[in-house]
Specification:
The structure holds two protein chains of two kinds. Chain A is an all-beta fold. Chain A has strands at 5-7, 10-13, 19-24, 31-37, 44-50, 53-56, 65-69, 75-79, 88-95, 103-104, 108-112. In chain A, strands 2, 4, 5, 6, 9, 10 and 11 form a seven-stranded mixed sheet that branches. In chain A, strands 1-3-8-7 form a four-stranded antiparallel sheet, with no helix packed on it. By secondary structure, chain B is mainly β. In chain B, strands 2, 4, 5, 9, 10 and 11 form a six-stranded mixed sheet that branches. A five-stranded antiparallel sheet of chain B has the order 1-3-8-7-6, with no helix packed on it. Classes of the chains: A mainly beta, B mainly beta.
Chain lengths: 113, 110
Protein backbone atom coordinates (compact mmCIF):
# COMPACT_ATOMS: atom_id res chain seq x y z
CA UNK A 1 0.00 0.00 0.00
CA UNK A 2 0.96 3.66 -0.23
CA UNK A 3 3.39 4.95 2.34
CA UNK A 4 3.82 8.42 3.80
CA UNK A 5 4.36 11.00 1.09
CA UNK A 6 5.78 14.50 1.42
CA UNK A 7 5.94 17.43 -0.93
CA UNK A 8 7.90 19.14 -2.22
CA UNK A 9 10.91 16.85 -2.07
CA UNK A 10 13.21 19.87 -2.32
CA UNK A 11 12.57 23.53 -1.65
CA UNK A 12 14.96 26.41 -2.07
CA UNK A 13 13.72 29.72 -0.73
CA UNK A 14 15.09 33.16 0.01
CA UNK A 15 15.58 34.29 3.56
CA UNK A 16 12.48 36.02 4.84
CA UNK A 17 9.99 34.13 2.65
CA UNK A 18 7.29 31.81 4.02
CA UNK A 19 7.23 28.11 3.10
CA UNK A 20 4.64 25.37 3.39
CA UNK A 21 5.57 21.72 3.61
CA UNK A 22 2.98 19.00 3.11
CA UNK A 23 2.61 15.51 4.50
CA UNK A 24 0.17 12.80 3.41
CA UNK A 25 0.10 10.06 6.06
CA UNK A 26 -0.72 6.40 5.55
CA UNK A 27 -4.47 5.99 5.21
CA UNK A 28 -6.08 5.17 8.55
CA UNK A 29 -3.18 6.41 10.65
CA UNK A 30 -4.50 8.74 13.31
CA UNK A 31 -1.17 10.01 14.65
CA UNK A 32 1.16 12.24 12.64
CA UNK A 33 4.58 13.58 13.60
CA UNK A 34 6.95 16.24 12.25
CA UNK A 35 10.70 16.06 12.80
CA UNK A 36 13.63 18.18 11.66
CA UNK A 37 17.01 16.69 10.78
CA UNK A 38 20.11 18.77 10.18
CA UNK A 39 22.80 17.26 7.98
CA UNK A 40 24.02 13.97 9.44
CA UNK A 41 22.32 14.65 12.74
CA UNK A 42 19.55 12.98 14.74
CA UNK A 43 15.81 13.55 14.65
CA UNK A 44 14.56 16.72 16.33
CA UNK A 45 10.90 16.35 17.34
CA UNK A 46 8.74 19.32 16.32
CA UNK A 47 5.05 18.53 16.77
CA UNK A 48 2.63 15.62 16.99
CA UNK A 49 -1.03 15.33 15.99
CA UNK A 50 -3.62 12.87 17.23
CA UNK A 51 -6.46 13.33 14.76
CA UNK A 52 -6.62 17.06 14.10
CA UNK A 53 -5.42 18.04 17.58
CA UNK A 54 -1.84 18.75 18.53
CA UNK A 55 -1.36 17.53 22.12
CA UNK A 56 2.38 18.15 21.94
CA UNK A 57 3.81 21.24 20.26
CA UNK A 58 6.79 21.36 22.57
CA UNK A 59 9.38 20.93 19.85
CA UNK A 60 8.46 23.90 17.66
CA UNK A 61 11.62 26.05 17.69
CA UNK A 62 9.92 29.44 17.53
CA UNK A 63 6.62 31.14 16.82
CA UNK A 64 7.62 31.29 13.15
CA UNK A 65 6.78 27.57 12.99
CA UNK A 66 3.19 26.34 12.90
CA UNK A 67 1.41 23.23 11.74
CA UNK A 68 -2.11 22.12 11.12
CA UNK A 69 -3.89 18.95 10.20
CA UNK A 70 -7.30 18.79 8.60
CA UNK A 71 -9.73 15.93 8.15
CA UNK A 72 -7.48 13.71 10.24
CA UNK A 73 -5.27 13.28 7.20
CA UNK A 74 -3.03 15.78 5.42
CA UNK A 75 -0.80 18.04 7.49
CA UNK A 76 1.05 21.19 6.56
CA UNK A 77 4.06 22.64 8.37
CA UNK A 78 4.47 26.37 7.78
CA UNK A 79 7.63 28.31 8.44
CA UNK A 80 7.24 32.07 8.29
CA UNK A 81 10.05 34.53 7.59
CA UNK A 82 12.53 31.73 6.97
CA UNK A 83 16.06 32.02 8.30
CA UNK A 84 19.21 30.27 7.14
CA UNK A 85 19.25 28.13 10.29
CA UNK A 86 15.91 26.67 9.17
CA UNK A 87 17.76 24.79 6.41
CA UNK A 88 17.34 21.08 7.12
CA UNK A 89 15.40 18.01 6.09
CA UNK A 90 11.86 18.01 7.45
CA UNK A 91 10.54 14.50 8.01
CA UNK A 92 6.95 13.47 8.56
CA UNK A 93 5.89 10.17 10.11
CA UNK A 94 2.53 8.57 10.83
CA UNK A 95 1.37 5.74 13.06
CA UNK A 96 -1.83 3.85 13.66
CA UNK A 97 -2.21 5.66 16.96
CA UNK A 98 0.03 7.34 19.52
CA UNK A 99 2.79 5.03 20.69
CA UNK A 100 2.62 2.64 17.75
CA UNK A 101 5.44 2.18 15.25
CA UNK A 102 6.05 5.29 13.17
CA UNK A 103 6.46 5.13 9.40
CA UNK A 104 8.43 7.92 7.80
CA UNK A 105 8.10 9.80 4.55
CA UNK A 106 11.10 10.63 2.36
CA UNK A 107 11.41 14.14 3.75
CA UNK A 108 11.52 17.66 2.31
CA UNK A 109 14.96 19.17 1.99
CA UNK A 110 14.66 22.90 2.72
CA UNK A 111 17.45 25.27 1.77
CA UNK A 112 17.22 28.91 2.79
CA UNK A 113 19.57 31.17 0.84
CA UNK B 1 12.68 14.49 29.94
CA UNK B 2 13.42 10.90 28.98
CA UNK B 3 16.50 10.34 26.87
CA UNK B 4 18.05 7.43 25.08
CA UNK B 5 21.80 6.99 24.98
CA UNK B 6 22.74 5.33 21.71
CA UNK B 7 26.27 4.11 21.10
CA UNK B 8 28.55 4.16 19.37
CA UNK B 9 27.93 7.46 17.61
CA UNK B 10 29.96 6.28 14.59
CA UNK B 11 31.47 3.02 13.43
CA UNK B 12 34.05 2.38 10.74
CA UNK B 13 34.29 -1.31 9.84
CA UNK B 14 35.53 -3.60 7.10
CA UNK B 15 33.06 -5.35 4.83
CA UNK B 16 32.24 -8.76 6.26
CA UNK B 17 32.65 -7.75 9.90
CA UNK B 18 29.86 -8.08 12.43
CA UNK B 19 28.42 -4.90 13.95
CA UNK B 20 26.89 -4.27 17.35
CA UNK B 21 25.18 -1.12 18.62
CA UNK B 22 23.00 -0.44 21.62
CA UNK B 23 20.67 1.93 23.36
CA UNK B 24 20.22 2.49 27.06
CA UNK B 25 17.80 4.52 29.11
CA UNK B 26 17.31 5.44 32.73
CA UNK B 27 13.58 4.77 32.26
CA UNK B 28 11.63 1.66 31.39
CA UNK B 29 10.28 1.30 27.88
CA UNK B 30 7.39 -0.89 26.69
CA UNK B 31 8.55 -1.19 23.10
CA UNK B 32 11.90 -0.88 21.37
CA UNK B 33 12.19 -0.03 17.68
CA UNK B 34 15.18 -0.01 15.36
CA UNK B 35 15.26 2.08 12.18
CA UNK B 36 17.75 2.52 9.36
CA UNK B 37 18.11 5.70 7.33
CA UNK B 38 19.81 5.61 3.96
CA UNK B 39 21.31 8.86 2.65
CA UNK B 40 18.59 11.13 1.27
CA UNK B 41 15.75 8.94 2.54
CA UNK B 42 13.48 8.78 5.57
CA UNK B 43 14.14 6.20 8.32
CA UNK B 44 12.75 2.72 7.65
CA UNK B 45 11.58 0.42 10.43
CA UNK B 46 13.80 -2.68 10.68
CA UNK B 47 12.71 -4.47 13.83
CA UNK B 48 10.10 -3.92 16.56
CA UNK B 49 10.40 -5.54 20.00
CA UNK B 50 7.46 -5.73 22.40
CA UNK B 51 8.49 -7.95 25.34
CA UNK B 52 11.38 -7.91 27.76
CA UNK B 53 13.90 -10.54 26.76
CA UNK B 54 12.51 -10.81 23.22
CA UNK B 55 15.11 -11.65 20.58
CA UNK B 56 14.08 -11.02 16.97
CA UNK B 57 15.89 -11.53 13.69
CA UNK B 58 15.36 -10.01 10.28
CA UNK B 59 17.83 -11.53 7.84
CA UNK B 60 21.32 -10.61 9.01
CA UNK B 61 19.90 -8.31 11.69
CA UNK B 62 19.20 -9.41 15.24
CA UNK B 63 17.81 -7.22 17.99
CA UNK B 64 17.01 -7.86 21.63
CA UNK B 65 14.77 -6.16 24.20
CA UNK B 66 16.78 -6.10 27.42
CA UNK B 67 15.29 -7.90 30.42
CA UNK B 68 15.52 -4.73 32.53
CA UNK B 69 13.44 -2.99 29.82
CA UNK B 70 16.00 -0.18 29.87
CA UNK B 71 18.17 -1.27 26.97
CA UNK B 72 18.24 -2.87 23.55
CA UNK B 73 20.91 -3.91 21.11
CA UNK B 74 21.09 -4.42 17.36
CA UNK B 75 23.59 -6.74 15.71
CA UNK B 76 24.37 -6.96 12.02
CA UNK B 77 26.26 -10.01 10.86
CA UNK B 78 28.64 -10.16 7.88
CA UNK B 79 28.21 -6.49 6.90
CA UNK B 80 27.85 -5.54 3.25
CA UNK B 81 28.19 -2.12 1.55
CA UNK B 82 24.43 -1.47 1.52
CA UNK B 83 24.40 -1.60 5.34
CA UNK B 84 25.91 1.90 5.34
CA UNK B 85 23.59 4.48 6.87
CA UNK B 86 22.33 5.84 10.17
CA UNK B 87 20.68 3.42 12.60
CA UNK B 88 18.24 4.86 15.13
CA UNK B 89 16.81 3.17 18.17
CA UNK B 90 13.50 4.34 19.59
CA UNK B 91 11.64 3.46 22.75
CA UNK B 92 7.98 3.75 23.68
CA UNK B 93 7.39 4.99 27.20
CA UNK B 94 4.41 4.37 29.45
CA UNK B 95 2.73 7.58 28.31
CA UNK B 96 2.88 6.38 24.69
CA UNK B 97 5.66 8.76 23.69
CA UNK B 98 8.25 7.51 21.22
CA UNK B 99 11.75 8.73 22.06
CA UNK B 100 14.54 8.45 19.46
CA UNK B 101 18.25 7.97 20.05
CA UNK B 102 20.72 10.22 18.26
CA UNK B 103 21.76 7.49 15.83
CA UNK B 104 24.76 5.33 15.02
CA UNK B 105 26.48 6.18 11.75
CA UNK B 106 27.83 3.06 10.08
CA UNK B 107 30.65 3.44 7.56
CA UNK B 108 32.20 0.55 5.65
CA UNK B 109 35.82 0.92 4.66
CA UNK B 110 36.76 -0.03 1.09
Amino acid sequence: GAGVSQSPSNKVTEKGKDVELRCDPISGHTALYWYRQSLGQGLEFLIYFQGNSAPDKSGLPSDRFSAERTGGSVSTLTIQRTQQEDSAVYLCASSLAAGYEQYFGPGTRLTVT
Amino acid sequence: GQQLNQSPQSMFIQEGEDVSMNCTSSSIFNTWLWYKQDPGEGPVLLIALYKAGELTSNGRLTAQFGITRKDSFLNISASIPSDVGIYFCAGRSGDDKIIFGKGTRLHILP
